[in-house]
Amino acid sequence: MTPLPEWLRPGFAPGAVKPRGRRGSLRPLRRGLATLEAVLGTLVSAGPDDRRDGFLRNADPRAKLLAGVALIVVATLLHGVAALGASLALALALAAAGRVRAVRIAAALGASLALTTLVMAPATLDVVTPGTPVLTLARPGGGSLGPFRLPATVAVTGAGLAVAARMILRTSACVTLALVLAATSRPQELLAGLRALGVPQAFVMVLTMTERYLAVLLRAAQELHLARLARTIGGIGFRREEAWAAAGIGAVFRRTRTLADNVTLAMIARGFTGEVRLLRPPRWRRREWLLVAAAALAAAALLAADRGLA
Amino acid sequence: MSGSAGAAVFTVADASFAYPAHAPCLDGVSFAVGRGERLALVGANGSGKSTLLHLLDGLYFPSSGSVSYLGRPLTEAALEAAPFGPRFRADVGFLFQNSDAQLFCPTVEDELAFGPLQMGWRQDDVERRIADTLALLEIGRLRARAPASLSAGEQKRVALASLLVLAPSVLLLDEPTGGLDPRSQSLLLEILDGLHGRGITLIAATHDLTLLPHIADRVLVLSEEHRLVADGTPGNVLADTSLLLAVNLIHAHAHRHGQLVHTHPHQHVVAHEHAHGDPAGHGHGDPRGGGEPEP
Question: What's the average model confidence in pLDDT over A166-182?
């Protein structure tokens, strides 16, 4: 048997090199990944709560898709804050009718609100959206900084707040409507519904795989991160951190590809023909017509009110 | 699917295979499998066992040579043509090593329904098969669960159920007990034994020699050069220490017993059990273990 090298024997003291101190804790990143996995798991993979019943849960997913997409498109076309508020109220009413859990709505709206606020924050300032100042944040006093001219004041404007409010209401309405679709239908039903409405097979397949494997890939990314963390003593510097992140993305990509190949083979092995088929296909009845008609009416009313109010 | 009694289910003739831009991973392999046989493919990691199972399932196609099922060559064109393609897919089930790849539906029920629905079978027939299969494998309580939330043993049983629901006559098993705890292993082996009793042909790839007496009546040995080097009963193969050493399925191993170090080939768990309490190592059951003084 090959003898153990000297440095691997118990009691061997390595050359004293002081480990570099860690620059900032990685705990937020780790927690962030774990939270992201949990949130995506809740929003994407949780599917409907089958123990809850209701009109929307039993409706044909094709009708729900048509109604939902119509209302989402209209929400993106509205301009007035009042009309957008009405659109959000309608979305929340649909969520309540669909008996979507309040926790799930709060998680989706919270994430959407945080992201939209972050993106829209600069738009509230007079340097981006001129208007009547509502709150002055800083007074640089004009002058110049190198080639840049500084403004006399940096203030939040009324027009900027209106722009941000419109965007926040619009995204909140769209996210809530999408959540109603996801929470009241099983993923396969929605995907089969998309196919029935003429969405190309390749697109539906990509959605199918994304829905199923997003959580798995997030877990893979988290495992890679933890494995790297277990071998890191002290800080490793920004450049090496960057290199590790790039290598990590590459490793996750490789795993993704291998997993995708294996899943495809497993599907082919069980006779996959490229079409999503359901054990209990939904039926289009009178209530589906009613749902689509009601959605079309609501969409038209919102548009008309928006134009009138504008 | 029809086939004369006693005829070969699979015939592999001088089949070679290489992944694109890679070295060959199967080299001129030939054998036949009869109906109702229990066959094990053994070999070290990377010897080509899994690849051979993929060839038998028509997921990969040989670079040269041929693989036939009931006398009909497995080619892409043949598998895309009805009725042979769908019937082959129903007739031959493949239990993948990684259950995470095999279980891609949101619930266990959807998982079991996937294959029959792809076959275009009637809904009431599919529902009856699902209920019967869940009962057969005693996993009825998992019906509405998400496969990703199950334990490894439960996932393996669901994966097996998703194949059995198609009433296959051949099962290809890639490392069937890999990653399972002893109880789950034992349960799976019982199930496989029961399936063989119902006439299902079992072909399993494994490098776990302890499994052979439980899952096979015949063993094919693949070398690290990706060639078929032996074909025999589990007893014959397990007794051939020089063969197992050559194909890297057992290894020469040094043991310390008190002041003595001696080497012997390690075969499997049974041969591994010896009296470590004996400082002189005299309780060792392996006659090949020659004692050597510690250097």
Answer: 93
